């Protein structure tokens, strides 16, 4: 079986009988070793001591508020308050899936987006374990990596925003490259059938561009597959999701915005407001979701379709919020956080 997203740390976790992810000391220590948590050279003794003890000795040990208050840098104090609260939430939950569900259902406001994205990645890695379609996996990167949208030679291309930013910085250092080159995305390799096999060896580099194409494209169908697997894994609910060209429904029963911009657009349409042309053009993709068992759906929705909307921001980025897929569905009863 081909591995992917090794940086998620999935190989450091245990599994329970249901296949849910269980926190281990190795996983926590790897977390404290992440670059964003390494104290800078000028860090005070209190921060260096706490980081050393958690990384090298006991990553589960309680951290008192006095230890954080003793740090000189206010930014460091804030970062450690968030990190310790996040660690404690993971330790208190029966699984990482359960922790994610709790956050998705109301506690995420106090959790930095970085932590939510990292947690989404490792949970999604578990949900997609055994998946061997590179188009599904590359599309699934939208769950936890911001994408930059580019229209080039009639094609809709999605590239990892951080990767594009690095290439743009390199261009600023070379005026000639800026003059002669096309968009920065053209310097990256587009995922195609002929190079799809290389995805597994470079999945942690986030350097392959996704050609989003039309409703029948492998990329859109791949995203639909990933979303259905995500819902099934977290909620134990079977759904079918298919890309559509447009919403052919004058009286929506339900919709889910897959990002903040899509939610804003969907709310405007839901309330009967006229959508300005610029907002309409920011809709990147539409999907129709149906439940296999109508008994799991609220009676007022029943067998009617649920519409999923994906949109770009005015600065042409996609910041997907996969928590909306588990917290925003019209389920008759919420799935237990197991």
Strand order of the largest sheet: 5-6-4-3-11
Low-pLDDT ranges: none
Number of domain modules: 3
Residue share in β-strands: 5-15%
Structural Rg: 21 Å
Query: What is the overall number of helices?
Result: 14
Shape: globular
User: Helices and strands, in N-to-C order?
Assistant: EEHHHHHHHEEHHEHEHEEHHEEEH
Question: Describe the biggest sheet?
Answer: 5 strands, mixed
Structural class: alpha+beta
Task: Please bin the fraction of helical residues.
Answer: 40-55%
Distance between the termini: 27 Å
Mean pLDDT: 92
- Kindly state the number of beta strands: 11
Descriptive account of the structure:
The chain has helices spanning 25-32, 45-56, 65-69, 74-92, 96-107, 113-127, 134-140, 161-172, 175-180, 199-202, 218-235, 260-270, 277-281, 323-327; strands at residues 14-15, 21-22, 147-152, 155-160, 189-190, 208-211, 239-244, 254-257, 283-291, 306-311, 317-318. It is α+β, with helices and mostly antiparallel strands. The protein folds into three domains: 6-127, no CATH class; 134-211, no CATH class; 218-327, no CATH class. The strands form three sheets. It has a five-stranded mixed beta sheet. β5 (189-190), α10 (199-202) and β6 (208-211) form a beta-alpha-beta unit. α5 (96-107) crosses α6 (113-127).
């Amino acid at each position: 079986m081909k591995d992917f997203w090794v940086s998620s740390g999935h190989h450091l976790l245990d599994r329970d009988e249901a296949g849910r992810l269980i926190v281990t000391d190795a996983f926590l220590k790897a977390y404290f070793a992440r670059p964003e948590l390494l104290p800078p050279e000028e860090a005070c003794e209190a921060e260096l001591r706490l980081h050393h003890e958690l990384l090298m000795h006991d990553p589960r040990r309680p951290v008192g508020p006095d230890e954080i208050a003793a740090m000189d840098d206010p930014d460091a104090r804030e970062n450690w308050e968030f990190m310790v609260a996040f660690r404690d939430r993971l330790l208190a939950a029966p699984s990482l899936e359960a922790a994610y569900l709790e956050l998705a259902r109301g506690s995420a406001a106090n959790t930095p987006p970085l932590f939510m994205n990292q947690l989404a990645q490792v949970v999604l890695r578990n949900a997609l374990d055994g998946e061997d379609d590179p188009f599904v996996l590359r599309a699934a990167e939208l769950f936890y990596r911001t994408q930059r949208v580019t229209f080039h030679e009639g094609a809709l291309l999605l590239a990892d925003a951080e990767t594009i930013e690095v290439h743009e910085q390199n261009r600023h250092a070379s005026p000639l490259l800026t003059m002669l080159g096309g968009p920065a995305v053209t310097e990256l390799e587009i995922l195609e059938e002929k190079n799809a096999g290389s995805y597994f060896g470079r999945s942690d580099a986030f350097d392959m561009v996704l050609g989003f194409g039309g409703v029948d494209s492998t990329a859109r169908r791949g995203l639909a597959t990933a979303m259905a697997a995500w819902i099934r894994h977290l909620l134990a609910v079977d759904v079918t999701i298919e890309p559509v060209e447009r919403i052919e429904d004058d009286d929506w029963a339900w919709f889910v915005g897959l990002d903040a911009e899509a939610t804003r657009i969907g709310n405007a349409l839901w309330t009967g407001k006229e959508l300005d042309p610029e907002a309409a053009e920011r809709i990147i993709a539409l999907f129709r979701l149906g439940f296999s068992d109508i008994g799991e759906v609220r009676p007022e929705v029943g067998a009617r379709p649920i519409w999923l909307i994906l949109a770009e921001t005015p600065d042409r980025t996609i910041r997907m919020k996969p928590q909306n897929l588990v917290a925003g569905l019209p389920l008759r009863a919420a799935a237990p956080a197991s």
